[in-house]
Amino acid sequence: MATAIDERQLRRQIDLALGICEERNAREDLELPDEVARYLWALYELAGRYDLSLPSTTLDAHIQLLALRRVWMPLADSETDDVLRYCLSCGAQLQPSCRRQRCTRCRREAAKQAVAS
Questions:
Q1: C-alpha to C-alpha distance for 106 and 21, rounded to whole angstroms
Q2: How far apart are the two ends of the chain, measured CA to CA in Å?
Q3: What is the pLDDT of residue 5?
Q4: For residues 117 and 114, what is the distance between their CA atoms, to the nearest angstrom?
Q5: If DSSP codes are grouped into helix, strand and coil, which group holds residue 51?
Q6: Mind listing the pLDDT tens digit for each residue in 1-13?
Q7: In the prediction, which pLDDT does 78 show?
Q8: For the chain, how long is the longest CA-to-CA vector?
Q9: Angle at the Cα of 101 (from 99 to 6), degrees rounded to 5?
Q10: E strand or H helix at 9, and its extent?
Q11: How far apart are CA 110 and CA 116, in angstroms?
Q12: Phi and psi based region of residue 9 (left: phi greater than 0; alpha: psi -120 to 50; beta: remaining)
């Protein structure tokens, strides 16, 4: 498990990658920079999400980084009932009762791809 210092560093790296995506999105330069791709791969590994693939644009990367930031910045237990949660793959809002990290559509697509391979 990561220490408090490691978690602060992770949050800083996520915020740095978010900043890069936001800047590129504002310039309409949607190509995913290598630096953001490296951050995402490292975060996928730390979150144990080996089933995720890199997004193709900075817009998609921004959505995934926001979802990953929620993993590393959990709210207090008393606040979790009202929290909006989002799919790590596509960013769609999940139902409050859902305890999964991906929406039904993304899980079905992943299952279809696994069967096809």
A1: 23
A2: 33
A3: 53
A4: 5
A5: coil
A6: 455 557 777 878 8
A7: 40
A8: 43
A9: 110
A10: helix 4-26
A11: 10
A12: alpha
Beta partners for residue 93, in sequence order: 86
> What is the number of other CB atoms lying within 10 angstroms of the CB of residue 103?
21
pTM reported for the whole predicted model: 0.57
For 85, other C-beta atoms within 10 Å of its C-beta total 17
> Is residue 102 packed enough to be buried (19+ CB in 10 Å), middle (13-18) or exposed (0-12)?
buried
Radius of gyration of the chain, Cα coordinates, nearest whole angstrom: 15
Using CA atoms, how far residue 81 sits from 8, 13, 47, 73, in Å, is 25, 28, 22, 15
Please choose, from the candidates 10, 16, 17, 19, the residue with its C-alpha nearest in 3D space to the C-alpha of residue 73.
10
Q: What is the pLDDT of residues 68-109, one digit of tens each?
A: 777 766 653 344 445 667 787 887 888 777 777 788 888 888
109 — phi, psi (to 5°)?
-60, -40
Q: Quick one: DSSP state of residue 34?
A: H
E strands, the chain, where?
85-86, 93-94
Report the percent of the chain where pLDDT is more than 90.
16
Count H helices and E strands in the chain, helices first.
4, 2
